[in-house]
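Notebook p. 47: complex prediction with zinc ion.
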Amino acid sequence: MDATPELKLYNTLTREKSVFSPIDPNNVRMYVCGPTVYDFAHIGNARPAIVFDMLFRLLRHVYGEDHVTYARNITDVDDKINARALRDHPGLPLNEAIRAVTEKTEMQYHADVAELGCLEPSFEPRATDNIVEMTEIIEKLIGNGHAYVASGEVLFDTKSMADYGQLSKRPLDEQQAGARIAVDAHKKNPGDFVLWKLSSHNEPGWESPWGRGRPGWHIECSAMSKRYLGDVFDIHGGGLDLIFPHHENEIAQSRCAHGTEVMANVWMHNGFLQVEGRKMSKSEGNFVTIHELLHTDIFGGRSWPGQVLRLAMLMTHYREPIDFTWNKLVEASNTLSKWRRAAELLSTPTEAPVDVQVLKALANDLSTQQAVQRLSTIASSAFASFHERGTISEQKIEEEQQTLVATLVASAKLLGFSLLEKTEIDEAVAAEIDARVKARLELLNAGNFAEADKIRDTLAAEGIQLKDGKDAETGERVTTWEVER
Ligand code: AMP
Ligand code: ZN
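Predicted complex, structure tokens below:
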């Protein structure tokens, strides 16, 4: 264990922040609901990926890299996937069409989150590889009176669980009085939810004791978390919108099947990424995909590096909403450049521990916004000691500065930023950029500023930043370039 201050986490289950105490410090276990793979992930979906990656990194730091297990599932059975498969691949047999959609989307998701600096989870199970595990839980629930078969569906009997609704604090009576849920005639109670439903011939299906069918969404996570993390585990996460009904129903299934007091000890939920006060979502149509933001100029006429989006997210506490704006990205980009410029002051690679204040902030319910501020303060101090050089003992300042920079680099790494690695770029691409930079210089020398600016802007949109300067000897204009990361 590290000398990290006590880790405190806010628990949606208790609505309190309390000291985190793992069931087994040698194997801290976390489950996070992953994507439904039918379409590109939008940057709202990027938020839980980044937030829980941050928590994964912190847990690994505190308990040791080999003592944390992180499972994030892939939901690859869902009616939205069927619809997409039928739309995009009408000529293919259904199973192949579905596979074409889910494989492509899953690959895209992996590429997206890797660019956002997220580590791979320890396990990334697919729902379709866990159908047997699901049917086993459903059989148990029928066997112990918590589920019933009706009209081609297996349903969870919400009334059979005395304390159903603990997470969302919605007692069953309230749900019925509110009558927001349509009362289906075959349900015993309006809040009862599907564990299994029969499939028609043009829907994907698996054989089961209740006929060829497919699972409901909630049962997937109960089955996969049990398989990879056990009946009871430490942390369960996801976005705020999952509290009800998804997480409430996961809890009902798992607790009733395994006869446990809790499913996970700590439930954590990230706030929404918003656009003009509204949640970014597919249905609102106000979304930008991660891929579009990182690789096209759809947002503000330029592309944005994954690390910039990551920092933009971490500048706000995970439970607060984020209003997604151009200014936020610019601020993150400037902050990251400042850290990188400070990192360049490091004369030799030096190991340093993570800054204590940074750890303190992270240990306080993942206060990344404070950790980010602290990193900027360290970077400023490193520059300040640079300016002081020559006034007091030069060697002492030099040492102090090197320590500051090494601390900055180590602390930024814990947040998922590598300040030292230069992005590798293909030789042919580099030659082509050189040629465009040279053409711009010629235009500038010829006084054609409008055309020169066009080249600079196009390069910027591709993530290439130009730095103009003068040759120290000849006084001639020289331009260098670098890839923004
Ligand atoms: P979905 O694919 O819609 O099930 O979402 C995958 C994950 O992204 C879930 O944890 C959601 O809670 C989360 N999520 C979806 N939209 C947003 C948003 N606008 N802001 C933050 N998290 C979101
Ligand atoms: Zn889930």
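Notes: The chain has a mean pLDDT of 92. The first strand starts at residue 8 and ends at 11.
Next step: compare against the earlier run before touching the bench.
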